[in-house]
Specification:
Oligomer: single chain
CATH topology: Alpha-Beta Plaits
CATH class: Alpha Beta
CATH architecture: 2-Layer Sandwich
Number of domains: 1
Number of strands: 4
Shape: globular
Distance between the termini: 15 Å
Length: 96
């Protein structure tokens, strides 16, 4: 199934924190795909200036709902928060 919506989380992290951020991505990729309603993909995008996690969903509603899940609030968010240099930018897109 192809994504109908994307949740993009952009995080500014120092280079020394990137391996830890990548580990959190890797640790939660499979549980995200298996347990989160409507999840269809999850990709880690790395640039010199930031790191982005692109989550694919079957709907905008499910993308929004993920932000309120226990996995996001209690595991992913808590694990990533000490690695940020600034607050993350969160965007949700629908696929036309």
């Amino acid at each position: 199934m192809s994504a109908k919506a994307y949740l993009e989380i952009t995080m500014v992290t120092n280079n020394e924190n990137r391996p830890a951020a990548a580990k959190i991505y890797t640790d939660y990729r499979e549980p995200f795909l298996a347990q989160i309603k409507g999840a269809v993909s999850k990709d880690l995008l790395i640039r010199d200036e930031d790191v982005q996690v692109l989550h694919g969903f079957d709907s905008v509603e499910n993308a929004k709902a993920y932000l309120d899940t226990e996995m996001f609030k209690n595991d992913v968010f808590v694990g990533l928060q000490p690695l940020w240099s600034d607050d993350p930018e969160v965007k949700i897109y629908s696929v036309a």
